[in-house]
Design brief:
about 160 residues; Cupredoxins domain-containing protein; binds copper (II) ion; Immunoglobulin-like; alpha+beta; about 20% helix; four-stranded antiparallel beta sheet; three-stranded mixed beta sheet; single chain; elongated
Length: about 160
C-alpha cells in the first residue's frame, strides 16, 4: 500500500516535471502581427494553431477601439451575444491562461465588431506528454522491498 503511494507520488512528480517544461506554455498572440482587430480571419488563425492546457492567449489591441468579452456557450458565440459575458477584458494587453481543455469563446464587445468576424474560438486539447513512464531502470523481477520506501521500487510495474 505504502509502496503504491510512493510510486504514485513519484509518477506525479515526474509527470509534473515533464509537463512543466515540455508544455511550458506557448504564448499565442491572437491574430499574430495583426493582433486583435477587424483585420484577421480568426477562424483561419485558430486553424493554424494547436492550443493546449498551459498555453496563454494574448489579446493585444487599442483599448479605445476594442475589448474582449468571453462568453460561455457556442450559441452566444455564434450569435455574438455579449450579454451573457462571463468575463470582460479591456486593458489592451490581456493574457488569458488556458487551464482546462475545451472551448473558450471570445468576442469584441464593440458594436458590429463581432458580427464582422471579430471573435475567436479557442479549443484547447490535452496534449500533455503522458509517455513519461520510460523510467524502466530496474527489471520487473525485483521482489517486494520490506522497507517500502526504496526509490528503485517506485517505477510502474511492468505487465
Ligand atoms: Cu472590436
Amino acid at each position: 500500500m505504502e509502496k503504491k503511494m510512493v510510486a504514485m507520488v513519484m509518477f506525479m512528480v515526474v509527470s509534473l516535471f515533464l509537463g512543466c517544461c515540455d508544455a511550458a506554455g506557448t504564448v499565442y498572440k491572437v491574430g499574430d502581427e495583426d493582433g486583435w482587430s477587424l483585420k484577421p480571419n480568426y477562424t483561419y488563425w485558430t486553424s493554424t494553431k494547436n492550443f493546449k492546457v498551459g498555453d496563454t492567449i494574448l489579446f493585444q489591441y487599442d483599448a479605445k477601439l476594442h475589448n474582449v468579452i468571453e462568453v460561455k456557450s457556442l450559441a452566444d458565440y455564434r450569435n455574438c451575444n455579449k450579454f451573457s459575458a462571463i468575463a470582460t477584458y479591456n486593458s489592451g494587453n490581456d493574457s488569458i491562461l488556458i487551464i482546462t481543455t475545451g472551448h473558450r469563446f471570445f468576442m469584441c464587445g464593440f458594436p458590429g465588431h463581432c458580427a464582422a468576424g471579430m471573435k475567436v474560438d479557442i479549443n484547447a486539447l490535452n496534449l500533455a506528454n503522458t509517455s513519461a513512464s520510460s523510467t524502466t531502470a530496474m527489471p520487473p523481477t525485483s521482489s517486494p522491498n520490506p522497507s517500502g520506501i526504496a526509490i528503485q521500487d517506485s517505477h510502474v510495474p511492468a505487465p
